[in-house]
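Question thread 4412

I'm putting together a teaching handout and wanted feedback from people who do this every day. The idea is simple: show students a protein as raw sequence, then show them the structure tokens that encode its fold, then repeat with a second protein so they can compare. Below is the first pair exactly as I plan to print it.
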Amino acid sequence: MRLDKFLKVSRIIKRRTVANDACGASHVSVNGKVVKPSFDVKAGDVIEVRFGEKTFRCEVLSTPEHAGKNEAAGLYKAL
């Protein structure tokens, strides 16, 4: 699954366009490398998102195409 879509489906970032912009501005890295929005995310990857002064790190557990509000938090584990 594309990185920008995963960020939206998992509700880490609420809108896909915002996720796309964050990736394009080098605010998102996967496994320690800055990546583009089209990067293919898989289970076991560690995503790091920088929101200004704060940094959010999580490990991807699964990558379904759709997830409800209740299932979104189960797609990743915060580190």
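The second pair follows. I'd like the answer to focus on this one:
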Amino acid sequence: MNENQKKHARKKLFLKIFGCIFSAAGIVLAVIGFADFFGAAAEADMPDKFWCVFAGFPLLFIGIAMLLFGFRKEIARYIKDESAPVLNEFAEDIRPAVRSVSSAVQEAKGERACPECGESNAADAKFCNNCGARLKKICPACGGENDGGAKFCDQCGASLEE
């Protein structure tokens, strides 16, 4: 660990320790002030420690702010770890739609995508120019033409697997 990282780690430790201290002091003062207020109200008396609330809330705010800055990296890592699987699942869900739109754009340009490598090929090509994969499959049952990545015939439903 270099000197800058050590200084940064010390600052974070300072923020974490004093954030806890300030937060605890703020909570204690606020509880004392509210207890005095409600206790005095129950006895129809004037509260004498209600000032603790006015000292406690700023201390609590400062403590929470220090804790947020001290734990910023841990919070960001947690958010990343919670968000990444959701984003990956979303990407998997929309992948077929993106491929469909991509194929439609290529067809409009007079091209077709290879089901293996995704390379653009001429619309009438039977094999990929990049990887040699079959772009069209002929159904052995009905003779219908299908996409190279199809497993079953579009016309009759027969298996295209060899």
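Top answer:
Good format. For the second protein you could add a caption like this: The radius of gyration is 34 Å. The first helix runs from residue 3 to 42.
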